[in-house]
Amino acid sequence: MTLNIGPQHPVTHGTLRIVAKLDGEQVIAAEPLAGYMHRGYEKLTEVRTYPQVTTLVNRIDWLGSFANEVPFILAAEQLMEVEAPERAQWIRTILFEMSRLGHMIMFLGDMGVQVGGLTAIFYAFRDREFVLNQIEAVTGGRFHPNFDRIGGLLDDLPKGWIAETKQAMEKVRSFCDEMDDLLLGNEIFQERTRGIGVIPPDVALQYGLSGANARASGIDWDIRRDNNVGLVYDKLDWKVWTHPDGDSFARYWVRLQETREATRMIDQLCDGIPSGPIMAKVPRIIKVPAGEAYVATENPLGEMGYHIVSKGDLMPFRVKIRSASFNNVSIAPWLLRGVYVPDIVSIMASLYFILGDIDK
């Protein structure tokens, strides 16, 4: 029997179709079919000026918002040999981690829905607002900030923002405690996720998994610690979380710990943010010198990088975007072989991907 899941289905997180061939209740083969919403970002960037590209790439991973902008801006700054002032680097790091929080809160609630627990997603929608309110207070946008600039940031933090942000972090930590009780401690959740969709570390590396999916397979790699460019993670006291099991439960557990860790990072950043300007001196008309640069950052879904080729014009000559979701879904045929039909849902949900990030 052939079972079509999607292209419109809650577990597909967008327009993705999964064609599963079954023998009774067991999957003997599964193939994800993407491409329903091809958006052509790489070609579109070649007909936009560098400042215009920031607006465009905001939308690749629509939950990642500000985090999408940062690696592109860092790559352009590398080509121009420009460095943002220290205060701008700290604010960038705060907003980058707040993007992670907005993203991960949705995952932590949505995973409950995928295994039959509806309550968690309502808590997620409720508490994500505290994070989005703070992002909006600085940038004016909740989903598409367009706030990063080559050489710094559009504007400084508003008065009272730091105190309000620290209060918001307390609320996010309370949300994490609720998810601990509601889901991780729930017997049904554990039955649906423990030992399901196990990815050994060598297979994770073969499929190019990164971020929490790789760390949940015991791979101790985080770009923020191991290959950081342009952000101030080296000034913070924080921990990289890993889990040895590699199953759906481990992927949820790692993301929950990373959400808590991000709130603690933001607290430290708010306490230590230096004074000073938020923009370096850059020409009014941005013209990037000829050359090539690749910069990747540890985005909420995993490694996201931009390879920019410049010929010294107002627009990039070529841009290649590396986003995490394509790798996250590429492992599905290997991972779904031999599992039972209900496990397709929990496995796909735990891999976590955004279709805009795949169909870029």
TrEMBL record:
Keywords: Membrane, NAD, Quinone, Translocase, Transmembrane, Transmembrane helix, Transport. GO terms for molecular function: NAD binding; oxidoreductase activity, acting on NAD(P)H; quinone binding. Residues 115-285, 286-360 form the NADH-quinone oxidoreductase subunit D domain. InterPro entries: NADH_Q_OxRdtase_suD, NADH_UbQ_OxRdtase_49kDa_CS, NDH1_su_D/H, NiFe-Hase_large. The chain crosses the membrane at residues 105-125, 334-355. Belongs to the complex I 49 kDa subunit family. This is NADH-quinone oxidoreductase subunit D. It comes from Candidatus Neomicrothrix subdominans.
